[in-house]
Amino acid sequence: MTLTSYKYADTIHRCFRCGYCKFPTNWADVNNCPAYARFRMETYSCGGRLWLIRAWLSNEIEWTDHLAKIMYTCTACKNCEEKCPLRFNVDIMNMITAVKGEMVERGLIPSQVKDFLENIQRQGNPYGKARAKRGEWTEGIEIPKYKGQDFLYYVGCVGSYDTRAQETARTLGKVLTKAGVSFGVLGGEENCDGNEVNALGEETLFEMMAEENVTQFKELGVQKIVTLSPHSYNTFKNDYPLHDGNFEVFHYTQALRDLIQGERLDVSRGLNTRVAYHDPCFLGRWNGEYDAPRMILNAIPGIELVELEKNRAGALCCGGGGGNFYTDFLGGSESSPARIRAREAYDTGANILAVACPNCMTMLEDAVKAEGLEDKIDVKDISEIVVEATGIA
Amino acid sequence: MDHVKEALAVIVGEEHVSTEPEELYIYSYDLGTTEPRRPDYAVAPRTTEEVRRIVELANQEKIPIVPLGGGLSLAGLAVPLQGGIALDLKRMDTIIEVSEKARYAVVECGVSQGQLTAYLEKNHPNLMHSEPGAPPQATIAGNVAIHGQGDLAQPYGFNSDMVNGLEVVLPTGEVCKFGSCAVGANWYTQHPLPDVGLFLGWAGTTGIITKVSLKLYPRKKIQGVGQFVVEDEELIPEIIYRITHTEAAHDVVAFSQAIPPFASGLHHITINLSADSEKELDFKMELIFDDTLGEYIRSGDGGFLGFNRGLQRPQISKTADWRKGGGFEYVGAIMPVETYPQCYRRGREISERHDIPYTVLGRVIGMSHAMMFSWTYAFNRADLETIRQAREALHETDDLALELGGTIWKPGIYGQKLVLERIDPNTLKLMKKVKQLLDPNGIMNPGNWEVS
Amino acid sequence: MDVVVCIKRVPDTADVVEIDASGNDIETDGLAFKINDWDEYALEAAVQLTEKQGGSIIAITVGPKEWDDVLRRALAIGADRAIRIDQDMVTADCYAVAKVLEALIRNLSYDLVLFGAQSEDFGSAQLGVMVAELLGIPHASLVVSLQVDQTTARIKRELEAGTLEAYAVELPALLTIQTGINQPRYISMAGIKRAMSKELQVISLSDLDLTQETLSPTVMLEKLELPPKDKKAELISGSPEESAEQLARILQNSGIF
């Protein structure tokens, strides 16, 4: 493909490579681009990526494995788009996704990305685990099947298959039940939301998945959705309307905030501990929701909420987005963004690092272990903190 | 894998060396109009010891080394003109020490401007450094090495005047210290020990700076910017002279630009003020805007546009977007302040002749001892013709700066030649001797400041 | 360079396999199916050949209607047309399948016939070799390297411990392809959709002048059993270096490495 048929051919040259994209909101360090933090070569920063895209599409450089890897180390955290001072910045994420799409079409993708996508095609989840097992996370608890209740509680692939995230999925179910919310889950009938597939550039596969989900939801009469994962939240809210799927979408922290403020969930039992909250990219930078999780934590008596030095729009991505929780391009080093984040959390003196996303959960918990900090700080989902504060068994 | 790459991988680890076309492509480029030149290796060391071993290897193998921090010289000073090793120093990003009492910070060469600013704001809120207008990715060491200037240039001078000491890896591999740190004391003063003039302003051709001790200055509780505007450029030198006489201001910058259109032809002067109390602020405001500039206001020659609290970091990157083009480059020259009017007029003429919206700026250095005058030319990276025009305009401007009695700051190859042509012949001979003494194999950023 | 590639549809090994009530088949309810792993390498090899040298690829399978999906995938990977012989023949008796395939292939024009070295389900590794013998053409199995010109295929076969055996095989020939010979490309959903317009022909046994009787099995599967579950735990002690050495030895001996 030559430059002229690339959707952003008109603007891809506008990156000045000035480097703002590497920084958090206060320039505390240059490690706020997770890929750049990991590799510290200019090619891995957003600016480097944009210049390489232009170079490839105008045939100044050829495709190589290395080029593909550089593209796919992008976790779609949106720090760059936020921090870029130039006007074309609104297109930055799309520019990178578009070039990934080009690589997907030509089959020029790293093998880990290929596995991810093929696993989704075959078994409906990136792990390649049996589709038949998708509903197994519901075993052992009372959790209603969706049959037209007020809310569809949508769990997603990580929550359905990852053992640690499954705990979170169950816990949230318990909390919603305790609060008397009318909801149900799809269990084994749930299908992947496709957010990562979209971020990986497999546009047609994503469209297919979105259309299937929209059809399924409509047939079931779904109107409101509450999601475990911000990834699902993001795509249901922002992408699905383009596929005729117009639902009222909530991330669970927004629902819990409303329940606590509406006194339908009693957290007065409290919890005495110091908590640092890690903003997930798809809730924070992508959708501007920084407050709901903090309101929940502040509403629980005994919790001392401390801020990580890089927080809100300046938060450091855990490195799990863009499929990286599976493809793991950013792992294997103390410079891995998750490990940097674990150290940052430890530096706050917090006992608990609170997360609101199953991807962040798996990435950060592994990182805490890799840093040898598992006795010093616990990684907990907000639903798990709430469950303790409400005294639900 | 070639044996040099293997040897580099042993020194810094495999992950921090690359010969992949992608890295080599990116490290070929300066962000301005300089033509790219490809390095053979991209290397990112973490410690002075690693740098030392790399330099030793380069001497053995006769491979050029091009050290870079942020790579934001915008003059092509980090473009590997003769290939070799592009040495990305940004992994060396530890802030080693900050002394409140002696007001200095010792940093590794990869520490960025933004990093130091954020660190001081959080841990030493009474201290600040002279922060240049470059993006926060620019490094302290890189900026000092090219005689940069920041927002404390008035009254405190060049950033290179603020150096208490250096640790340098010589082109032959020895590690040296300069300043009080060399005698085992703290890094609090450069003088009276033999000076570090061998490494500042030499564009990395005499060694690699691995640590810098930088003077810090008081940061007062209230910071803000007052704005003044005049129409007649001839008034600027006198205004600057008078403001600096008060000794009450910090950064004084006079600028004029075609965009936004209302600003075209006008000359804005920003005057940074700081104070620890409203009383102090009022006093300084009165001293400057009433006592000193009042007569211009009363005669209608000048207008006071107000005082805004808080120091805004300028985002000069935005200039890159002026031709929707992703690029700009500028000639910075150290000029006598009295040349402001001709700098403006002649510079504007060059811009307009090349179809580029004009942007000129003069930042006062010291007590009106000089100013850094910049002529900025934006270009569209996707349109080679605009790059050619910008390059032409830049060369003309290099000529202009010297014609007007100034001297070019951090010149690229073209400007270097102009300066070398004019330098005192004995000085030139000495420069050559110094270079040969320090770098017998000619490996340090060759192609720059080459004295034939 | 005209290439025939024979492919098989197998259960996805991510799924747990259970023996069904009859005791000699697996429970297929709820299983996901896919193209046999080895066959993907064979298809990729074929596509790389025709990309370089021109020519065409025909993908063939023997199976019921559900097996159209693996043919569609083969078409998306790069086969020009596909043929399904409509007969359910998942069986331990390779010879019967070989006879069916040979009956079709002998009437096609080809330089090369490619099979995967074995299938993921029965894993007998016999089918390709049998078809070659029936066709009366030379064959080589476990091919990990392939270069072809007008008359000859220069191949390398994988033996044990990384040893390779090199051959020159005269065309037309049949090769069974080992994994690792190439990196099968990713096939996007858009690519699969585009391939829907390519030709997929369905023929019956009678089109090949074959009947059920001619195919009566000579090998019969009597019973399927799951391997016994063995619980064994071994505690490794000693210094980190010693335990690491012990562990490495155990893993190596178990065949995991």
Summarize the structure.
The complex is a heterotrimer of chains A (393), B (452) and C (257). By secondary structure, chain B is of the alpha+beta class.
Describe the structure in your own words:
The complex is a heterotrimer of chains A (393), B (452) and C (257). In chain A, strand 7 (352-355), helix 16 and strand 8 form a beta-alpha-beta unit. The model of chain A has no long low-confidence stretch (mean pLDDT 95). A four-stranded parallel sheet of chain A has the order 2-1-3-4. Chain A has a four-stranded parallel sheet with strand order 6-5-7-8, with helices on both faces. Chain A has 393 residues and is an alpha/beta fold. Chain A folds into three domains: 3-109, no CATH class; 132-257, Rossmann fold; 266-390, AF0625-like (Rossmann fold). Chain A contains 17 helices and eight strands. Chain A has helices spanning 34-39, 46-57, 65-72, 79-83, 92-105, 111-123, 157-161, 163-178, 195-199, 203-220, 230-238, 252-261, 291-299, 324-327, 337-347, 358-370, 382-390, and strands at residues 151-154, 183-184, 224-227, 248-251, 273-277, 303-306, 352-355, 378-381. Chain A is 42% helix and 8% strand. In chain B, a hairpin with a 4-residue loop joins strand 5 (95-99) and strand 6. Chain B is globular, with a radius of gyration of 22 Å. In chain B, the strands form four sheets. In chain B, strands 15-12-14-13-17-18-16-19 form an eight-stranded antiparallel sheet. Chain B has a five-stranded antiparallel sheet with strand order 5-6-10-8-9. Chain B has 452 residues and is of the alpha+beta class. Chain B has helices at 3-12, 21-27, 48-61, 113-123, 140-145, 153-156, 236-245, 278-292, 294-299, 340-353, 384-403, 413-422, 425-438, and strands at 17-18, 41-43, 65-68, 85-88, 95-99, 104-108, 127-128, 163-169, 175-179, 208-215, 217-218, 222-230, 252-257, 267-275, 302-309, 326-335, 359-365, 370-380, 407-409. The mean pLDDT of chain B is 94. Chain C is an alpha/beta fold and 257 residues long. Chain C has one domain: HUPs (Rossmann fold, 3-Layer(aba) Sandwich), CATH 3.40.50.620. In chain C, 27% of the residues lie in helices and 24% in strands. Chain C has helices at 37-53, 68-77, 94-105, 127-135, 189-195, 240-253; strands spanning 3-6, 9-11, 33-35, 57-63, 81-86, 112-116, 139-148, 152-158, 164-170, 173-177, 199-203. The longest helix of chain C has 17 residues, at 37-53. Chain C is globular and about 65 Å long. Classes of the chains: A alpha/beta (393), B alpha+beta (452), C alpha/beta (257). Chains in contact: A-B, A-C. At the A-B interface, helix 2 and helix 3 of A face helix 2, helix 4 and strand 16 of B.
